[in-house]
Amino acid sequence: MKLETFKAGTWTARYQYKSFEPVLVDHAWRWEDPTINTLLESANRALGELNAFSLIVPDIDLFIEMHVVKEAQTSSRIEGTQTGMDEALMSEDQIQPEKRNDWREVRNYVDAINSAIAELQTLPLSNRLLRKTHEVLMRGVRGENKQPGEFRTSQNWIGGSSLTDAVFIPPHPQGVPALMSDLEKFWHDDGITVPHLIRLAISHYQFETIHPFLDGNGRIGRLLVPLYLVSNGLLAKPSLYLSDFFERNRASYYDALMRVRVSNDMIHWVRFFLRGVAETATKGRDVFRKILILRTDAEHKILSLGRRAPNARQALTLLYKKPMLNAGDLEKALEISQPTANSLLRDLIRLGLLKEVTGAARHRLYVFETYLELFVR
Fold first, then answer.
1. What's the predicted TM-score (pTM) here?
2. DSSP of 316-358, one letter per residue?
3. Can you give the CATH number for the domain in which 366 is found?
4. Of the candidates 252, 286, 320, which is a domain's last residue?
5. Of 257, 286, 315, which residue constitutes the final position of a domain?
6. Tens of pLDDT along 167-222?
């Protein structure tokens, strides 16, 4: 199948609406557009540089956790949640009651990402894995009654208030199992020669077009990207997430997907996706580079504390995972007394590593601001 002559599917009349029935994608793909080759080369190079940094940065998993939180917060924001990056790092009791539902959705997504990556150790990228991940995503939040962990058995839609005024109506539920089975075969079909990033671009489009769940399709579809890259060895760690790129280019993102369905323009979508991979991987590489510089500077500052340096070093390790905390977090994590925790906080503030952000006499919160800023720019 040539990208230039691709026919995306057909609109099929149903009762009072038409659903879009996409064609199967598990077959060979080719193209004549030279721009695709150039973009593919750039994306692969940027991805390789990002992967190299993830292999050389010491204790990389500390910083991957922040990538995961950033992805969860951004991907959920695309779906309408209002949780900020700082709030995503807080515990539930620190969140205002009226914001806790959104906060739980973000934290569920963190759990879903972590569980999915862990599952890849024993389970291949598959519909089974996506269903298990979806179940975690929907646990105890909006959508928990919409068949969590199961492909839909009723019609859904995108945009509008009902099927009669929807922007897009995905395929009829009867066709979902066969379409998702074809997509899973496409991920693992060694009999066809399709570069991984092209295969992934097509897969993300196809997943979002099928919209196999009643809720959470956007988040699972975006999570499919790092899962595919890790499962196929393109990344050693789940360090690339496209939600930030999609969120900053939201109108272009939705337009590119719809152009495939309406105008068969798969070329435009693949170009957009490859640009997103290249830009996001380059940005991720630069973040890792800045982390190394920041870490070296922080270590030098801590050396000035003399006998108190070991505790400060443990606190710094905690801050890389949780750059917003209170005295109680330090007491618990480091197993130290309250006076020792407070003294340690004063040391870290004096060294410029922490900043108190509440201005309150009690229940104070402290932030590792220079580190957190690397993930919110």
1. 0.93
2. HHHHHH-SEE-HHHHHHHHT--HHHHHHHHHHHHHTTS-EE-S
3. 1.10.10.10
4. 286
5. 286
6. 999 999 999 999 999 999 999 999 999 999 999 999 999 999 999 999 999 999 99
